[in-house]
Amino acid sequence: MASVLDATEKAVELDVLRGLAGAQVEGEPDLIVELIDLYAEDSPRRLDAIRGALAAGDLEALRRAAHGLKGSSASLGARRVEMLCEKLERLSGGEWRQEGEILLARLGRELARAGAAFAYERSRRLRGAGLEQLNVLDY
Q: Rounded to whole angstroms, how far apart are CA atoms 48 and 119?
């Protein structure tokens, strides 16, 4: 068993996310919570767009969708998601669809892991510090 903090650090570089706290305006809703909420709303749509483009055999649409998810993931510290999106962007050649299917499966798993990490950070921020002692199974 790993602590929640250890498991989330593996999926998301929380220091990147927490580094955005400098943009927080006093008296306003928590910026990081809002960014997490936007990502949670947007990333499934982007994943669906990648999935649809792959199914349609539209490499350019796949690249555009992957690029968008890569950017939002990078800005929040979801480095593994970012890396998989970059690989999707670079697909080419006759075997791109088969490789794309493999990358899509990995991307789905990494998005789930990142989502769990973001949910943890969101909860921690809303409830205050001190949840680091909770234990969960590795993702």
A: 21
Q: What is the DSSP letter of 20?
A: G
Q: What are phi and psi of 12, to 5 degrees?
A: -140, 135
DSSP type of residue 24: P
d(CA 113, CA 53): 23
Which backbone phi and psi does 91 adopt, to 5 degrees?
A: -60, 140
CB atoms within 10 A of CB 5: 17
Rg (CA), the chain: 16
As a whole number of angstroms, the distance between CA 48 and CA 54 comes to 10
pTM of the model: 0.82
pLDDT for position 10: 77
Ranges of residues in the chain with a pLDDT under 70 are 1-9, 129-139
Tokens 């493999």 -> residue: 102
With vertex at residue 37, the alpha carbon angle to CA 68 and CA 26, rounded to the nearest 5 degrees, is 115
Give the model's pLDDT for residue 129: 40
Q: What is the pLDDT of residue 63?
A: 97
